[in-house]
Amino acid sequence: MTEHVLLCLKCRGRDHDVDHCATETWSSELGWMFSPAGRPTSLGTGSSGTFEIICSRCENLNLIELLESRPPWTSQSDLSEAFEDGHECIRNLGRTGSIQFWADCCVCRCLFGITPNPSSPDQEVLLLPDWTINRVAGELGAIKMDTPETQAYGSCLLSALKPSSISLPAGIVAHRGDALCMMENNMGPRRTLGGKRIDPHEINIDTILHWVASCMERHDSACRPAPTKDLETVRLIDVESRQVVGYPGPDCEYIALSYVWGNVRQSHYKLGDTLKELPRTLEDLISLTKRLGKRYVWVDSLCIDQLDEKEKANQIDRMWGIYRGAYITVIVLSGIFVDAGLSRLSRAKNYQ
Fold first, then answer.
1. What digits encode the pLDDT tens for the residues 84-93?
2. Radius of gyration of the CA atoms of the chain, in A
3. What's the pTM?
4. Number of domains composing the chain
């Protein structure tokens, strides 16, 4: 290495490790997973050379071999048991009080980025492989990876602390952070839910439509929109006329939004009103809806009269049916207020 710039797990800073950190308090592991603190830090490369450097510790981990092989467990309970008892495919990086991550090692930076904040210097940092489908299944974890079809899914690498400060099974805790996986290419066999290169400036509409079409074709009815009577009194936004309209009927394919409003004053609209200029996230949603070839959207702040408390209570009771009946739901994970915009849409580029 040309320069040894250390990264600190305790404060997420540079130029030192946990043993030399001036920060006196330890952060929460759970807080790291559900706050901006858990988002990737801009660490730079740490090296002025053309080629990325890999330290000897990371070379000896054989992570490529680990990611190319199939994870040995077929359920999340098996993963949790292996995590507690130890398994040959689990890599131990050491204790949080003495482990070193180098900013000039590209693998160190990746491992540092997926490792949660420790709550003490005595926790071990463990790397373990799992199926990417389990990141979609979440805490349900009901998929058994014991058939050729299920084992066609890609694999990923997780980082977890042992013992964890979170009183949940390791198979659940490990999936609450970020993960690493191999990027697919056109040379070898492709796996379902494998790694893909993402354009940081543009959304691939064809990919989204392909995902939705595959879901409609391959999944059972529980994974498809299910219009219910709850929708009969719901209002939508017609993105062509920008008017608040009544629900057109069970054949209507609308897009719902889940987002954070934040400290922005809300406007209120009634049936038949035409929308004025909207906060950036909502304008981006309308643009995305048009690009997906759909006409209607549902947004709580626009489709519910915010000044009518009785109507608000009535519509809140119908929220389950609203999201269950949507063609898709756009979930804004990166914005902390409604003017943040949607990632990788033109209006949002300067605000992410």
1. 998 999 999 9
2. 23
3. 0.72
4. 2
